[in-house]
Amino acid sequence: VSSHHQAPAEKCHLLSSVPRLSSEVRLGSGFWQHATPSPGRAIISHCFAGMPYPQNLQTALEVEAVVRQHGAVPATIAIIGGQPCIGCDKEQLEYIAQRGTAVRKVSRRDMPLVVGNSLDGATTVSGTMLLAARAGIKVFVTGGIGGVHRGGHVSMDVSADLTELGRTPVAVVCAGAKSVLDIPRTLEYLETQGVCVAVYGADEFPAFFSQHSGCKAPCRVDTPQQAARMICASYDLHLDTGMLIAVPIPAEYAAEGAVIQRAIEESLAEADQQGIAGAEITPFLLESIRSKTGGASLAANIQLIKNNAAIGSQVAVELAALR
What is the DSSP code string of 13-37? Predict the structure, then answer.
């Protein structure tokens, strides 16, 4: 057995790695370093990566308005100049929105690069969950999560959103997994990660643009109070995992199933032919599907996010009352 002396690790502190909270979020959370929102105030995070400008900016502002209307505090998250911003102001939102796809998508793995080199970043579900948890935020609203890509059982192309849900205690309110994914395998992976998956007001897991995926809901909740109690129980049991609350898109905004499915299949084939994969595939597919459906998919995307924000805000308010 050999041994050697190891010098103490050098301490390294980057001021920019400390999340910066907006004044509205600070007022809602109290002394944020404790990461414990004060009673009666619900803070809900949101990200808006993946949409074209100016719809991305307009949607972000409209989602924040929906959150406030339901009694919660919005905290849109992005990274600007290497600084994680929890609760972007309008100027910051416009800056990120105008740069569009030129801004790097930031998951957990990208944090050291983007923060350490003072870059800009639009956080994915994974990245947003991580930063929300650092700020003590327990509910996060988005459009849909990533998942196991079609053919992922061969390529091992599995979104970091799923592993983040298995390790970060933030409840994600969304319209299910994006419909371009392998939803049955996505649900199997979430089960393996120990993630509680609930569908709001339905018995079938939604597929983003559609209320139907053909997959039975692992469990069902029908009120914000029920969802909040489940989140609270997860914290009380120290499960240290996230929770997925899938909200089906309202029927009046759901894209025609056959039309959207045909567009998805065509877009997937084009992405494969062009060698598009990884972080670039989602923006490509969303834009391709939007183009093929005459903009119907983008309109549906915006409406489902706003609906998720309404439900998620109510859940956050109930959770704040419980804690």
Answer: --GGGSPEEPHHHHHHHSSGGG--P
| Residue 58, amino acid | Q
Mean pLDDT of 126-150: 93
Residue 224: is it exposed, middle or buried by C-beta count within 10 angstroms (0-12/13-18/19+)? buried
| Residue 170, both tokens | 């933030």
* Spatial distance between the Cα atoms of 135 and 4, rounded to a whole number of angstroms: 39
Full DSSP string of 229-280: HHHHHHHHTT----EEEE-PPPGGGPPPHHHHHHHHHHHHHHHHHHT--GGG
Question: What is the model's pLDDT at position 114?
Answer: 96
In contact, 56 and 48? CB cutoff 8 Å: yes
Tokens 């990461």 belong to: 35
Whether the per-residue pLDDT at 26 is higher than 80: the answer is: no
Q: Write down the pTM of the prediction.
A: 0.86
What confidence score (pLDDT) does residue 47 get? 62
Rounded CA-CA distance 207/231 in Å is: 23
Tokens for 149? 């890509």
156: left (phi over 0), alpha (psi -120 to 50) or beta: left
Q: Residue 300 pLDDT more than 80? A: yes
Q: What is the pLDDT of residue 110?
A: 97
Q: What is the pLDDT of residue 40?
A: 39
Q: Enter the tokens of residue 158.
A: 């599995």
Q: Helices H, strands E: what count in the chain?
A: 12, 11
3-state secondary structure of 66: helix
